[in-house]
Amino acid sequence: MRYSRVKSLLGDDFSKLQDAKVLLLGVGGVGGFCLDCLVRTGVKDITIVDFDTFEESNQNRQIGSESLGSVKVEHLQKLYPCVSTINIKITPQWCEDFDFSPFDLVIDAIDDMKAKVAIAHKVHEKLISAMGGAKKLDPTKVELTSIWKTHGDPLAKKFRYELKKSGFDKDFLVVFSSEISHCKDLGSFVGVTGTVGLTLCSGAIKKLCS
Asked: Among residues 29, 20, 9, which one has the least CA distance to residue 188?
C-alpha cells in the first residue's frame, strides 16, 4: 500500500490529511520540496501558485528544473497530477482579492516581502511561512517556531519589522535558519533550501493533524 507506512506513523490522524485542502504559495527551491513531501505523505488536495518558469540557474536546488523553460506550476502538475494550479504572480493586491476561505492551511514559500506581509494579515491563523534558505550550508540550523522568536535570519528580521510597521500583532509559525550567511550574492545549497521545504511540510502535517 502506498501510504501504509505513513498510516502506521499517524494512525487515525492520516484521514485528516486525506481530507485537507492546502494552498502552497511558491514552488521554487523551498516550495518544490514542500510539495513533494505533502504529496508523498498523503495530502491529496493541493493548490500551487507561482508565475515563474524553470531556468538553468534553478537546477542546483529546484524539483522539476530539468525541464528548462517550462512554466513551473504546469510542469509540477505533470509530476504530481493531484495538484491544482494557478499561474500568477503573488502580489499584495492578489492576496487582498483571493478567497483563502476554502483552504485548511496556507503555506508561504515566496520571497516578496510586501506579499508575505499581506498574506500574514489575511490568513495568519492558518499560515506557515518560510524565511531565508539561501547563502547557507548547515541544515541542522533550520528551525520551526513563532515569527517573533526567530533570530539570526535577515529575512525574518525584515519580516518582523514590516509586520510591526503594518500594525500586525498576531502570531504564526515560520521556518528559519539561524546560520550566518556565507556569501553576499544569490548562493544556495539544496541541503538547506530542501530542508526548509521539508520542515514546512512537517509543520503542515502537525498542524493539520492537531
From this structure: 29
